[in-house]
Write a structure and sequence with these properties.
Elements (H helix, E strand, L loop, with lengths): L1 E5 L3 E6 L6 E7 L7 E5 L5 E4 L5 E3 L5 E3 L5 E2 L3 H9 L5 E5 L12 H10 L1 E7 L2 E4 L3 E5 L2 E6 L5 E7 L7 E7 L2 H8 L5 E3 H9 L12 E4 L2 E2 L10 H14 L6 E2 L1 E5 L3 H12 L5 E4 L1
Parallel strand pairs: 4-9, 11-19, 14-20, 16-17
Antiparallel strand pairs: 1-10, 2-3, 3-9, 4-5, 6-7, 7-8, 11-21, 12-13, 13-20, 14-15, 17-18
Helix pairs in contact: 1-5, 5-6
């Protein structure tokens, strides 16, 4: 496949989900082979490649680090949109610690890519073919990558809240399908956890406009729902973003059972720990 980047620079401003501050984000074309790179303009232009081995924290979002203290958090929605748009090379410049959360989905970023347009460039993008099953587990949750002929997902979640309950979705990846089925699904959170998050300096940018809020067995802002099973769709959205840190498109089947960012990252580390698990195909 030829490599793709955006055709022109595009800028957006919005609130950071955890920091709560206003962030200015610029998406710019990148040279062929450059991959996905985040730049902190507020830290002298320090850059962090968007790779699985740069992930430093996964508690409430995927956080990457340059190894010297410069971090960018909550990258999973933007990374999901990057994968869902088929982008291989991109420079993301931020003047703060996170991309803006925008509408809490990946579709908001797709709209920015639509404004920028797409451009093919020299060089080929290899794909990662899964050769052997790779599985990680923790506390009753699991994530696996299995050999398959295409990129596919089988995800199941289970919450005690009747607002969510048990949801499962099997879905085959495609650029058109991502835009239609996955990208619009919003992030979600529980009202009873918000005070503790705020005291820890987190969740300060969460609002009833960008986050589906669960209070007991009801959805406070149910008018924002776009799908009856939006919660499992958003978990697939997150998994696509986390798997995009592999550095190339994957051909394999992702199976998640209550998996989150931590297991998703452990899965990629397990995958690349043994070259018998995969091969790069050009």
């Amino acid at each position: 496949m030829p490599r793709r980047t955006i055709a022109r620079e595009v800028t957006a401003e919005g609130t950071a989900l955890h920091a709560g501050s206003t962030i200015r984000m610029t998406l710019a074309p990148a040279a062929s082979g450059g991959g996905l790179v985040f730049r902190r303009s507020d830290l002298g232009g320090r850059e962090i490649p968007a790779r699985y081995d740069r992930v430093a924290e996964t508690r409430l979002g995927t956080v990457i680090d340059d190894g010297q203290g410069a971090r960018v958090g909550v990258i999973e929605h933007l990374m999901s949109a990057v994968a869902g748009a088929g982008i291989d090379d991109l420079l993301v410049t931020l003047d703060g610690p996170e991309p803006p959360i925008l509408a809490g989905d990946a579709f908001s970023y797709l709209e920015l890519f639509d404004r920028a347009g797409m451009r093919e460039q020299d060089g080929e993008q290899p794909i990662i073919e899964i050769l052997k099953p790779v599985t990680v587990e923790h506390g009753g949750a699991s994530a696996a990558l299995l050999p398959a002929e295409a990129y596919a997902f089988d995800f199941e979640i289970a919450f005690s809240s009747a607002a969510i309950g048990t949801q499962r979705m099997e879905w085959n990846f495609s650029l058109e399908g991502f835009r239609r089925d996955i990208a619009p699904a919003r992030t979600f959170g529980f009202v009873h956890e918000l005070d503790a998050l705020n005291r820890a300096g987190l969740g300060r940018g969460a609002s009833l406009q960008n986050t589906l809020a669960i209070d007991g067995d009801r959805i406070v802002n149910a008018n924002l729902l776009r799908f009856p099973d939006e919660f499992v769709r958003h978990k697939i959205l997150d998994a696509i973003g986390d798997m995009a840190l592999a550095g190339a498109p994957i051909v394999g089947r992702f199976v998640g059972r209550r998996s989150g960012h931590a297991l998703n990252n452990q899965l990629l580390r397990a995958l690349f720990s043994d070259t018998a698990n995969y091969r790069l195909v050009t």
